[in-house]
Amino acid sequence: MERNKRMLTDKWYLIGPTEEIRANKIKKIRILGEDIVIFRDAAGVPSAIEDRCCHRNVPLSMGEIKRGCVVCPYHGWTFNGAGECVHIPSLAAEDPIPRTAKVRCYPVREQHKLLWVFVGDESRAEKTAPPPIPEMDQWPFVAREHLFEADLESAAESLLDPYHIAFTHRDSIGTLLGSIEGLPQNPDFHIEVVEDGLIGRYQRENTSSFFEKQYFGNTPQVQVHYRFFYPNLSRLEIVFRDRVLLILEHIMQVDDQRVSMTQITLWKNIFRPFPWFARYFMRRKSDKIVGEDIALLRAQRAIMDKMKEQEGRVREVSVRGDAISLAFRKYWRAKLKETSSDAPEISKKQPPFEAADAPNE
């Protein structure tokens, strides 16, 4: 956890849709082991401060919001959005508030209907920005956060993996948009490495049912575009004739054991006459999809931890079809400045390809 924290600071982290941060309400979050409270000040501007009263170290998240400030539940010390104590009930009228009566404040940004918090050196916040997601301003969406035990790298990689859809999500995505998992044996993944992540595209065979093809389109292939923004956001865009499904997954380390996965599902021209049904349907499907991923990621984490404990490393075998996952790992580990002396375990029967398979740490 300490290693991940050192490597993953100075980044913007997604808190959720801005509509979820309501006036007079406190939202408690944990990012890289840091406890933070999110709230809106008297003008409705979102703020993020340390979840700790500097008086007697009580969590401010147990308190309440009054006139846009957080009131500690223990002795009523009151903090504004800058983390400054502005009122102490027990302080004599003639005594000033101590200059040290303040807690850490985190930069906050609202962008494309999403709220982000910067964790790290505050002076670097203006030099970077959250990933652009302009579709959030135009398309309907549903969002849900999930906390579970998993390996951070594996969780971040999961949405980009093209072959797992046919197996992990056979009971969810397959029924949502037809069986579009019929990839050719050697697909062209068009992998491009850029400064802030990966960009690529590929095609899936459209093997949907007759009725699904009537609605989504009867083209032989379905276009898939994927994008990874280091270190925490993946997007998978599935394009039919004139309809689009966009899945975003934001992954972050919460503490030593758990990660947070916020999945946002957006859609264009799907169930347009029935927006209420579209939200209900997409929310149920999103929960089903994430539940399927979580079950496997939890089980995977247990096996990986056991191998690390017994052998000091994680053993894996990769093939050509893992090209996107391997490109992701190579990029991810280069960004984390990871090195490995262990050669990847690849079957000699497989054609040569650039492998980034290495032990997870």
Task: Indicate the topology.
Blueprint: H1 2-8, E1 11-17, E2 27-31, E3 34-40, E4 46-50, E5 64-66, E6 69-71, E7 78-79, E8 85-87, E9 105-106, E10 108-111, E11 114-119, E12 141-149, H2 152-158, H3 165-168, H4 173-177, E13 192-194, E14 197-205, H5 210-216, E15 221-229, E16 233-239, E17 244-253, E18 258-268, H6 275-311, H7 323-335
Antiparallel strand pairs: 1-11, 2-3, 3-4, 4-9, 5-6, 6-7, 7-8, 10-11, 12-18, 13-14, 14-15, 15-16, 16-17, 17-18
Written account of the structure:
By secondary structure, the chain is an alpha+beta fold. The chain folds into two domains: 2-127, Rieske Iron-sulfur Protein, CATH 2.102.10.10; 134-335, Naphthalene 1,2-dioxygenase Alpha Subunit, Chain A, domain 1 (Alpha-Beta Complex), CATH 3.90.380. The protein has seven helices and 18 strands. The protein has helices at residues 2-8, 152-158, 165-168, 173-177, 210-216, 275-311, 323-335; strands at residues 11-17, 27-31, 34-40, 46-50, 64-66, 69-71, 78-79, 85-87, 105-106, 108-111, 114-119, 141-149, 192-194, 197-205, 221-229, 233-239, 244-253, 258-268. Strands 12-18-17-16-15-14-13 form a seven-stranded antiparallel β-sheet, with helices on one face. The chain has a four-stranded antiparallel β-sheet with strand order 2-3-4-9, with no helix packed on it. Strand 15 (221-229) and strand 16 form a beta hairpin. The longest helix is centred in the C-terminal third of the chain and has 37 residues, at 275-311. The chain starts with a helix and ends in a 26-residue tail after the last helix. Mean pLDDT is 86; it is low at 175-180 and 338-361.
